[in-house]
Amino acid sequence: MHEEIDHSAWRALTSSTAQLTDYHHRLLSLDDRVGAFLECDPHKGASLTCAQDHPLSGIPFAVKDNIALKDFSLTCGSKILQDFISPYSATAVNRLLECGAVPAGKVNLDEFGMGSDTTNSAYRRTINPWHADRVPGGSSGGSAAAVAAGMVPYALGSDTGGSVRQPANFCGVYGLKPTYGAVSRYGLVAYASSLETIGIIADTPELTQLVFDTIAGPDPKDQTSRSASDTAAPLRDGQVTIGVLSDTDGLDEEVRRGYREAVEGCRSLGWGIEQISLDALSYAVPAYYTIAAAEASANLARYTGIRYGQRSLTGADVQSMTRATREEGFGAEVKLRILLGTYVLRSGFQDQYYIRAQKLRTKIRGDLSALFSRVSLLMLPVFPTQAYPFGADALTPFQQKLADRYTVTANLAGVPALSFPTGNVSGLPLGVQFLAPEFAEHRLLEAAGAYRQIYRPQQAVHHLSLTEGV
Ligand code: GLN
């Protein structure tokens, strides 16, 4: 059911110094409008790669700026890491470089991955390539916009609570959040370590699978990385059952219609449909934000201004220097999470929030694993709205958090999920996500590949003619 991938056009762009220079100019010119890159330098990237006879060899990719790529920036979208250059590469990045893949540069994100539309970046605005007045989604907004605009065929992102799937959804491309531990987190700057994973945003399911196969696998540098204990069975024709939500309250009208159409799409592929209800959806958001903030408050304590990153020039002693560094270096959303995390972890009160959230997490894991004994895949919406506008009509930070309810469930349970495009209304992409049992990424990609018989996404670049004049 998988299609052949032909990447010869991409490979040609990196095949000589002259071609690379052309490609670099083309990227910069597109990026004037898209705003995806924080650092763009395919020449420097090409010099890092090892020549290999691998299908990814010579193919360019982009890396979210919270994932280490040696000799490139690693700002995490934060002022506190302005000018920080990474001395090493993440394991996932190294595995791509060893295959001869060419990093084109580092792409924009919400500060430390906290947010849903990439407007929490300290550096620049990234637009949605389908509509310049709309957000690209987040926090891996630069990764999704770069793929949707046709700048690179794939990009690495990170998904703590939806940050790969949600921007992929807003930008009409494929977004895979792997099983927790399937891809090494070595070199991913920590936000909420027990929830997050490096993920892939790509223009086809086949490429997503190829990149996943290349970067996955245990790594001695990440003790939580592991291989599949037993591999879930592949999808077998005539035996595929998709669990779908009977209750779609709270979704925007277009998104609800898109979800229903996707259910019909699955039915027309011959798959069985089972209506389910998922209690987890009503308590996943509070559990997620309690745990994510608690872990963030511990992980971000390393930014003291002492060993690396920015240092405030004010303050008479070490404590006041650190306080001033954090005051100047962190944005509002990051400060909010640190305060919230410190609050839920304070001594004597852990039972009230943190332990309760962990109990909910255990319950969610159990609910999902019970469901997967009945269905092969679960189909959920990704986000209650399509890509929303910048400015006054944007979702507030609180609305954004509530809107995470469909994505955080997979992170709390540690299971893989893939968001994929299923349509386009009013010039904006629509999509849904599949969730699968641990280590059943191949099921997700196979099903999304089959769904291309129903809907084949276009690239935003054709829609907006971003290539004009290049
Ligand atoms: N929107 C969620 C948050 O801000 C998810 C972010 C992510 O997956 N990195 O925490």
The CATH class of the largest domain = Alpha Beta
CATH superfamily of the largest domain: Amidase signature (AS) domain
CATH architecture of the largest domain: Alpha-Beta Complex
Range of strand content? 5-15%
Fold-level CATH name of the largest domain: Amidase signature (AS) enzymes
How would you describe this protein?
- Strand 10 (417-425) and strand 11 form a beta hairpin.
- The protein is globular.
- Helix 5 packs parallel to helix 6 (165-171) and helix 7 (205-215) packs antiparallel against helix 15.
- The protein folds into 2 domains: 2-237 and 371-451, Amidase signature (AS) enzymes (Alpha-Beta Complex), CATH 3.90.1300; 284-359, no CATH class.
- An 11-stranded mixed β-sheet has the order 1-3-2-4-6-5-10-11-9-7-8, sandwiched between helices.
- It is of the alpha/beta class and 470 residues long.
- It is built from 16 helices and 11 strands.
- The mean pLDDT is 94.
- It starts with 7 loop residues before the first helix and ends in a 6-residue tail after the last helix.
- The protein binds glutamine (GLN).
- Glutamine binds at residues 113-116, 139, 158-163, 191, 292, 404.
